[in-house]
Amino acid sequence: MQLKTADIKEILKNYNFIKLQISNGLVDETTKEKLVFVENCINALDDKNKQLIKEFYLDCISKKQLAKKMFISRAGLYKKIDAIINKIIKLYETYKKI
Hints:
This protein has 6 helices and no strands. It is an all-alpha fold.
């Protein structure tokens, strides 16, 4: 299983759709493994980052509202999201070595 930043973002963007496909048995095993891995990585994040990822990708909160809630610009919001995605990649690298 190979995950890259774009793969993780794609899984998060389509999270609810992929979960629905899994419940209907329409997804291959590789996609299912990637989703489970991303879920585990999100759960391993600290509460603040976990909440940010969930609101950004899963809760359909507008990016403008989320940035305003955090008192940062939208560009700052995207930088924070990218930093969290990089943490997930590092977790993957650690997991891969085990």
